[in-house]
Design a protein that fits this description.
By secondary structure, this protein is mostly helical. It contains five helices and no strands. The longest helix has 26 residues. The relative contact order is 0.19.
């Protein structure tokens, strides 16, 4: 089942379905999971990964909040949604940068996911009006 289908079924959506926003919501949800997993893997590393763990967990929290706001269609607060999407973009930038400093495969994968998420959020942001 897809989140896009769920959004399309909402009574307030009708012909106003926003595909870029649905894609961004899906990627933000996946990004939160990847960042959480990366933080957990960082805990098992034999080196001090505290900053990476913190950055990944912060990004996971921001991405989770963004994904949840993106799928809510009743009584939309466009200003709140836009601010949260901008926060998600910035959190993903910071996390990709931090994870990019490490040679661990889990960090590389997390950085890639963060870059994908921020690009999808950037594409969707102009469609939110």
């Amino acid at each position: 089942m897809s989140i896009a289908k769920m959004i399309q079924l909402h009574p307030d959506v009708g012909d106003d379905f926003n595909e870029p926003l649905a894609t961004a919501a899906r990627h933000a949800m996946w990004c939160a999971l990847m960042c959480t997993s990366c933080a957990d893997a960082c805990l098992a590393e034999d080196m001090d990964m505290r900053q990476c763990i913190r950055t990944c967990l912060d990004c996971a929290d921001v991405s989770t909040a963004a994904s949840r706001l993106m799928v809510r269609r009743t009584g939309q607060d466009i200003g709140m949604l836009r601010v949260q999407m901008e926060a998600c973009i910035r959190a993903c930038e910071l996390c990709a940068e931090e994870c990019g400093r490490h040679d661990h495969e889990h960090c590389k994968l997390c950085a890639t996911m963060c870059r994908e998420c921020l690009e999808d959020c950037r594409k969707a942001l102009p469609t939110v009006q």
